[in-house]
Amino acid sequence: MKKIILIAVAVVVVGYVVVYEGIWKWMVEAVDVPPDRMLVVVAKTGKEMPPGKIIAGDGEKGVRLTPYGTGRHFFNPFLYERQLHPQVIVGPGELGVVINKFGKELPPGEFLAGKDERGIQRDVLLPGTYKLNPYAFEVKIVKMVEIEPGHVGVIAARSGKTAKGQLAEEGERGVQKRVLEPGLYALNPEAYSVESIEVGFNQVTMAHAGKLPETQTTGQGVEKSRAVPGRPQRQQDIRSAAPAKPVLGAVKFPSSDGFEITIDVTLLWQLLPSDAPEVFARYGNIHKIEENILIPQINSTARIKGSTFGAVDFIVGDKREQFQGAFQETIEKTLKEKRLQVDLALVQDTLVPDNISGPIQDSRIAAEWNITNVEKTKTEAKKAQLDESVGLIRQIEQVVEYETQRLEGNTAAEREKAVNQLAAEGRLLAAELARQTASIKADTRRKIGGAEAKVVEMKGKAEGEGFAQQVAAAGSAADYNALQFAKQLPERVKLSLIYAGNGTLWTDLEKASVAPMELLRRTSSGTESLKK
Above pLDDT 90, what percent of the chain? Predict the structure, then answer.
């Protein structure tokens, strides 16, 4: 019996594993969700939901809120309905406006919902992929707000507290003080409206027929709002697009004397970014500013200022300049009070009735012809004076050429004369130098001869005085001779003395003069022998 029970248990276990886990679960309950899809589950069993409720909770029959993403999921097809839906994809430059289909009711007067409230959600979806249950949420894909270079975005909040002033602060309803700089902004179009306002230079030209056949107001003109082939037009572009406007006609007004004056006007103006919110709140967009403010102001200013001038004043230059200055000044001052900056208000052409301008123009043309003829007469006179001056200049050139040749001849003769005179003076100076040189040489030879004779004389005199001194030193002439004789003797001489008696030689030796002493020195060898 135990064995049968074990076999039955084993069969049940194997059957469960094979049939349920292997076949039923993987082949019947398994649902594969691809990457771009999501799985929405609808419970087929459970208690019924209250009336008005569209999302089922735990134990209730109906659509479950949370979808399942990419992968394999297991749900019993008898208990749940399994639905594959595409995921919500918000591309670059886009945003998703979410409408919540379930939740609490909105407070009175509010149309933007919070996270758990039913209605248009205040927060938007940024670029990305989202798993939002289509039974619970509706998503509208719209373009982000793009502010182009040269523009600012003026924001108008559609919800919030009532603004205290003309411009609203953050959280207040109305035109906001802050503006959007050029760029992309993820603003909920249900919560905010954004008007792109050009803050660069704008131009309004009013001209008579045929003058500027394609001119109309510029700035955010029609060309910028027209659809570009190949590019989808944004909802904001469609809202801000203005209908095509015809060419603006020239300004007409009566002069002080009752004639109709027509002028062509070009107004160059701009809107500063800091003034854009206030100007937009007061007057609207660029087209409304031009139609309701600028064009009427141009016409009224021209009528008021132009009516103080006569028809002739618009032909004469000085009066036209006065009208131009008054027109520019009034336009600038008036529009500055409206926060619009005028850079140029130029009156281009002025048309005056022919019955006024014709005679004036004819008289001015006649005056110009008269001035032209006078100038021609002056020109002819100047030309005659010029011809006369040219002839005189040619005569002067001939005289100058003759005088130049004459001066060149005289200069050559004078140059030759001066050269010969210099040569003669040179030769005379050379002769004088030669004479002086010969005289100096003769004087030099004479002085040298006298000096030589003087030297000989002085030398002889010195030699004589020397002899006399030597003789005096020797004692007498005989002693000097003896001295000279002794000096001529050889260094070695043999002398023999003969004894002559006592006292004969040695007694008189001290009285001996120089000569005997020199003789004794020369004969020292003999003296040595004598002493011995």
Answer: 25
